[in-house]
Structure formats: C-alpha cells, structure tokens
Amino acid sequence: MSRQAATEAKEATVKLRILRGIGDDPATTRYDSFEVPRQDGMVVLNAVHYVQAHFDPSLSARLNCKAGRCGSCSAEINGRPRLMCKTPVDSIEGEITVEPMKAFPRLRDLVTDVSDNWKVAKMIPPFTPKANSEGVWRFYQRDVDRSREFRKCIECFLCQDVCHVVREHEAEYIGPRWVVKAASLDMHPMDGLNRSKFMKDAGGLGYCNITKCCQEICPEHIVITDDAIIPEKERVVDTHYDPLLWVIRHVPRTQDQLEVEVKKVLKVAFWVAILAPWVLVPAYYLFRGIFG
Ligand code: SF4
Ligand code: SF4
Ligand code: FES
Q1: 43 CB near ligand 2 (under 6 Å)
Q2: How is 70-136 classified by DSSP, letter by letter?
Q3: Which of 18, 51, 66, 131 is the most buried (most CB within 10 A)?
Q4: pLDDT confidence band for 5 (50 / 70 / 90)
C-alpha cells in the first residue's frame, strides 16, 4: 500500500473514546471506544450522533442548535473545554477523547447539571437605571460597545469549567461567566448601581488570580479577564481600598451633605468622649502593670 493510500485508509474513520457513567457512581463509569466513518466537515458532535444512531442509542449528550449558538454541547475534548459542534474532527490528531465538563456534577454520560449557575444569576444585583433617567436615553455607541461584547455570551459555561477556583476549590467565587454578567451591567451607560460590594463579598472576586484560562477558551472570544475581571477588580479597589478616593467621595458638595458629614463627625466625637475614660484609663494602668 502506498503512503498516500495508507493515510487515506487511516483517515477514513474517526476513533472516539467517550467517558460514560450515571451520576458519580463508579460502578457505571467507564470509557467506551467507537470508530465512526469520517465525513467532510465533520465535527465532534456529528461523530457522537453517529454513535447514538448506529452503535448505542443510550449515549447521552446535550445539544440544541448545532451551530455554536446555544451553548448546550459543552464538553472536554482531549482535556480541553470546547463546544462539540464547533470542533472539527480534522483539527485533532489521533484518537478523540470526549468527557463531560468536570466542574459540574455529571447526570449521565456527557450531560452535566449546570443548574447552580441559575442560582448565581439570581444573586447578581439587576440593572438599575440611573436617577433622573426618565425619557429617551441617549448615549454614544462607544459607551455601549464594551457592554455589548459581554452580551455575546452563549452561557456554555466552558469558562466556569476551566476556572481552577470554581473547579477545585470550595471558594465562594461566582466564576468568570458571572463576572462578565456583572460587568455588562456595571459598564452600561444608563446603569446607576455600584456592584463592587457584592463583587467583593458574596461574589468572591478576590479569589480570581487572573490566570486568563477562561479568556483563552471562550468560544465567543469575549476578552473575559482583560475587559471584565480586571476592570471589576479595579472598581472594588477604587470603592473600598483607595484612601484618596474615599476622601474625595466624602468631601461635601452641598449644604445638606456638609450637615450630614458634620453630624457624623460630632457623633463619633461624642462616643469617643464617652468611652475614652473607660478604655484608655484601664489600658494605661494595665500597660503600667505589665511593663512596670
Ligand atoms: S482568570 Fe480568574 S476567573 Fe479566569 S480562569 Fe483564571 S482564576 Fe478563573
Ligand atoms: S463567557 Fe464565553 S466561555 Fe463563558 S459562558 Fe459565556 S460564552 Fe461561554
Ligand atoms: S449545539 Fe448549540 S452550541 Fe453546540
């Protein structure tokens, strides 16, 4: 057989190795191997379909659009989180190993339970129009471009799957998809809410150490880390940790604000005057008792 004939014969079929199993039951967990005829333009999802149609109808896999639009067919292909319907079999050398996303509990075969994401979605403070924003909203295109980038998300959750914090740690971190969601609201020119306290506390944004893995695998090419996570981190720092900005924010600009700030200072001074003798005097004698 000539070399070209050998190559053609080798490429006539696609070798698939699929992780099977029900829930986390180790007794049902196994890899099944299949060989399916290679076709022009074939993607991994086509090969999985072929297996369902010709070898094993019990193989479970989720899909909807077959066009990279619905985010249903997420899986790990040779260890990398990818959409099965957007991964050509010709782009992979040798055997193709298909596994379910490992960041989520497996229901059956390639189908995982991603429903925890909807609980996180409900936690994010919703879009809140700015005060006095009645009437027609007018803003520049450039002001909504960033927010529109984030709306390309198809909720495939591949970024959640690849994130080591979501995947391997018990940390209370909402994950990259939900930082993108919060950023899409924060960066909308007509939104008036500051979500930085939510992102700092319940959102667990500090757990992200900007490895950029999520950004590399997003099928919609959303620049997750640079355009969403880092600006959200900067908002948290500006709002909660920058002393200069804290002072600037608290400088009174109107008579009413001045009165409020003066009242706050007087209240603090009052409590210091009341409590100081009860704290400072005993502390003084305690200090003298210890250090002579
Ligand atoms: S950049 Fe942050 S969110 Fe993205 S994968 Fe790394 S740790 Fe996770
Ligand atoms: S941000 Fe990208 S990777 Fe993450 S869920 Fe949306 S489309 Fe998928
Ligand atoms: S089937 Fe819809 S994204 Fe793959």
Answers
A1: no
A2: S---EEEETTEEEEGGG-BGGGS-S-EEEE--TTS-EEETTEE--THHHHHHHHSPPP-BPTT--S-
A3: 18
A4: low
